[in-house]
Amino acid sequence: MVGCHAEGEVGKVVTGGIVDVPGETMFDKKRYLENHADGLRRLLLFEPRGGAVHSTNLVLPSNHPEAQVGYIIMESTEYPPMSGSNTICTATVILETGMVAKIEPETRLVLEAPGGLIEVVAKCRDGKVEEVKFVNLPSFVLHLDAPIEVEGLGTISVDVAYGGMIFALVGAGACGFAITPDEARDICVVGQKIKAAAVEQLQVVRPENPEIRDVTVTEFTGPVERTGDRLTARNMVVVSPGRLDRSPCGTGTCARLAVMHARGQIAEGQVFDHCSIIGTNFRSEVIETTRVAGAPAVVTTVAGMRCRTGAASATCSKNTVCSRRPRRRRRCRQVGVNRGR
Question: Helices 84-96 and 250-262 meet at what angle, rounded to 10?
Answer without folding.
Answer: 130
